[in-house]
């Protein structure tokens, strides 16, 4: 069974999803790939993981580093899982480029090169927005390219974290 709950953020409504124990999705309503991990027939219910997540989000939207994220359960290809793991390592208030992630994966796999575009596809399909910080990934030239929730939200999230944006 899958469960959902709603959170009202300063940037819009967010839908939380869980398998009953861990988060399986966190999406801004109407974002690209919204509810991509949900099956039909999910049930709206408050769960301990949702209380934890809402407390985490309250702290985050208050402009503070909320620390460790609630439990998450990710399903995807080995490539996507490796990208999402790297996303989880990006510290609050810092950014990396798609190319940085591509180079890291290439080193891990012993490859000479990895496509930054392929990394961008995996980043874009991250089902747990904000908590797995795909908004902290930027273009090599410092541009705010790509964010399933929209560039305006990405910019606001980074500013909330104190990231200085080059324009």
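-> sequence recovered:
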């Amino acid at each position: 069974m899958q469960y959902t709950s709603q959170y009202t953020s300063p940037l819009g409504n967010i839908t939380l999803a869980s398998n009953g124990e861990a988060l399986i999705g966190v999406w801004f309503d109407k974002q690209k790939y919204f509810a991509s991990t949900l099956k039909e027939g999910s049930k709206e219910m408050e769960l301990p993981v949702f209380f934890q997540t809402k407390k985490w989000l309250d702290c985050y939207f208050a402009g503070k580093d909320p620390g460790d994220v609630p439990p998450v359960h990710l399903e995807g290809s080995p490539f996507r899982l490796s990208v999402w793991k790297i996303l989880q390592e990006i510290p609050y208030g810092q950014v990396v480029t798609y190319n940085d992630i591509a180079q890291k994966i290439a080193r891990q796999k012993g490859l000479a090169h990895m496509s930054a575009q392929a990394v961008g596809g995996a980043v874009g399909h991250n089902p747990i927005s904000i908590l797995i910080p795909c908004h902290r990934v930027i273009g090599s030239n410092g541009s705010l390219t790509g964010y399933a929730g929209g560039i305006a939200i990405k910019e606001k999230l980074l500013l909330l974290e104190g990231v200085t944006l080059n324009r």
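Strands lie at 3-9, 12-18, 23-28, 43-44, 96-97, 137-138.
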